[in-house]
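Suppose you are handed a protein chain with no further information: no name, no annotation, nothing but its sequence. What can you learn? This example shows the usual starting point.
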Amino acid sequence: MDMFKKILSAPLAAGKAVLKFIFMPEGERAKSAYVLLLIFIVAFFAAGLDFPNYWDKYAHKINDKLKVSIPNFYKLDYKLGLDLKGGAQLVYLADLSALSESEYGGAMAGLRDVIERRVNAFGIAEPNVQTAKSGSEQRLIVELAGVKDISQAIDMIGQTPYLEFKEERSASETEEITKAQKEGQRLDEDPYFQSTGLTGKYLKKAEINLDQNTYQSVVNLNFDADGAKLFEEITGRNVGKRVAIYLDWSVISAPRVNEAISGGQAVISGDFSQKEATQLVQRLNSGALPVPIKLISQKNVEASLGEIALKKSLEASFYAILIVGLFMILWYRVPGVLAVIALLVYTIFTLALFKLLGVTMTLTGIVGFILSVGMAVDANILIFARMKEEFRAGKKFDLAIREGFSRAWPSIRDSNISTLITCFVLYFFTTSLIKGFALALAVGVLVSMFTAITVTRLLLKTFATEKLGKFLWYR
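A reasonable first move is to predict its three-dimensional structure. Written in structure tokens, the prediction is:
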């Protein structure tokens, strides 16, 4: 028995010393330890947000055993993109016949922006809206992640109204066109009204109102400055004639103009129910289409990667973190262990921010996250390399740490700022698919700067001492 006590006395004494070292720090090390403890507490709850099922599993066990009531953790799912989740794809043909070829680019860009803005209003995860040219045709391709019902997707986009004002043709023009149409010619022309150039792109705001005479719902339109000027010119040259209001190529109303109308206000009246008028106002305010579009293709898109490929991507992320961690431990020893702890904190915080910020996880987003892992460790490598130089110069442990961080900071700052600038350009000047990569990488870079500069420094100040460094630090 005495022999066992002697054998156990050494590790017990060492354990007490370690506990005293960790939980009873003094001076500056105490301040570092308390801040580090606060960061670990936040990281603990961030891990619960990342993996709520594990929290719930152990909470239920503790509740059953100790008869307490630890609540389940707040559930917030990751947003998955079209390549991981599947969805719907719609292809539209843009009618650019009223524009010159030099205006095609601007019209298609405006069309893409309006559709993307409308889809975003429905909370669709990272819609992929892009333009494409097929021969002489200009097309708009819309991919909606997680939308399995094609009719729902069409309702979101296809019902965005195309608003247009047309003026009455002369009797001779009407007769000429109707005669030609009887012979099978000019079939795409309206024999009674012609375009004025006043469309929904000049619309500033639409609002619902009540007609005081008929007590029916009407829609008031307010045009911007250019639209107001154009509307005044149209009504001025059509006094005594009709000006038709077309919505999605159908005549809603064709009132007769009594005088020129200034101020940029018009009224759409018709047999609207309250619900129909409300929906029309919502759709008009969501963004009027600069050019008409026609749905030419619709299909469901299965997840191109699927659950197996998603699992492999996540496994690749895990192995990347594991291999980087092993390299840091084998090459840098004690600082490497502390860097791995900082890397785990980085991973927990980054995943939590992905959920809180609603970052859509696509394959490119996962690539951005894995790339940011390497950048997170890169900052630690710069710091440790500078510290090694200070040690070789014969400086004391505390001074070597301080000088190492001070000398490494300019390189870390400049490299990360250049990366963030690249992310900014990719996010604001590319398509939705690349935006996921840019946002994931930017979030990772920002968190890595915090963990490398703050968490790693606090870990070194708290746990790494001169005595420990003599035995376990590299020289």
